[in-house]
Amino acid sequence: MPKVNVFISYSHQDRDYLDKLKIFLHEKTCPLLNVWDDGEIPLGGEWNEVIKTHLNEARIVLLLISQNFLISDYIERVELKTALERDKRKECSVIPIFTRHCNLDNYAWMQLQGLPKEMRFLSDAGADIDNQLSLIQKDINDLAALLLTNENISTSLANNDEKSANAKVIQELTSKRKIFLSVPDEPEARKKRQELIIQADAKVKYDDWPYEIIPGIKDVQEIDKMSAEERTEKLALQLSDALYSVHIVASENDLKEGINKIQYDMAKGLHPAATNSVFRTVIWLLSADLLSKIDKEICQNPLFTGNDYGAFFDKIASLDVDKEKEIAERKKEFFPNKRVYMYYDFTADHDNELRIDLKTKMEEKNYCVRWNTFDEDGQKEIEDLEACDGAVVFYGAAQPKWFMVKQAKLLDMKNLRSRAICLDEPEIQKKFNRDVSKNEFVTIQGKANLDAGLNTFLERLQP
């Protein structure tokens, strides 16, 4: 199985933190990683050349930040310099790992996103250090999976294999950055169109908004000089290059006649296209009164009303959420390994031996196990679940209410192919008798049933 090369840059005075980190990045829990540091150079090896070779082959570079790291001449001159240059060329991802306290105010490269988040140094973690290292492990595993997934998509496109149709959709959804804004005949509608384009240009300039409105103001001036046939052909070409189309409605008959109808009908024709599965037509009603006057079929499209340009940007943002879900679902076919989400009560069951055995066995079978953390926010939890093929609720010392909430959440996640509940040994019969849906969940009853129950759960993960 392909792996992601990881290079760890560190000061030898911080060897204790390197050793702790490598335990969490071990191949048994991080099967997608090939981790290297200079401690692996054999005696008598040309250490300088060996380091440069591994550094240039790495796709992830971890910097163990401390005062010792900052004052090392070799790190600054060779490792850090090379890593930052490669990161700038998008050849690798450089991630600072905050180990011991030091002053980082004057280092421009500290704009890079580091771990633990919010620059919480491991030296301050105390008894919580294992939790912080497990979060680092999770983020690096996720990055490695993303890199390999994107590589698989690129390979599929290059080879034009049986997955390439799906890869092309992902590529199109990811790269399309244009929104078609209809070109109406009415002067008032034209004026509103121009005002929206000005607002969009400002949002691009100041907020890095990712979209371009087409046709632009100058393009419309050229379109107006064309014949009716040329005009239709030009607008059709622009529409085909857009991810979304927005149609301005100034009167109740706007989309029933003339150029407005032609543009709307062309947009409707794009909806069923497999290569544009999230294409949406948005209706912009210049007056809220029109809502009761236009056809119901038109009202089924996403719409906004009036002169509130913020509503336009909000509507596009909501469509982007659907787009990202579509991309995430399609990417599953290219994951380097299948993903399983594990729910467990962090405060009660983090050190539970059965939970650890369950996680380890899944990882040994090449499954990527994601899990909720004690401070996980609800939206991130949903996003992680949507990216998984199956999920397990581990029920150890947790309160029954906690268990019921998590069980209900998994029932709501329609994307999951397989669901399981793992019960630890104490009071197992009492827990087994709780409201567990036998049809929806595989039940793993303690250590004695671990292997058999896990195999059934994993079998259901298969398409």
From TrEMBL:
Pfam family, one: TIR_2
Single GO BP term: signal transduction
Keyword hit for Transmembrane helix: no
Domain called TIR: residue spans: 2-147
InterPro entries: TIR_dom (IPR000157), Toll_tir_struct_dom_sf (IPR035897)
Alphabetically ordered keywords of this record: Receptor
SUPFAM superfamilies in UniProt: Toll/Interleukin receptor TIR domain
Keyword Acetylation recorded: no
Superkingdom classification of source: Bacteria
Identification of the protein by name: Toll/interleukin-1 receptor domain-containing protein
Organism: Flavisolibacter ginsenosidimutans
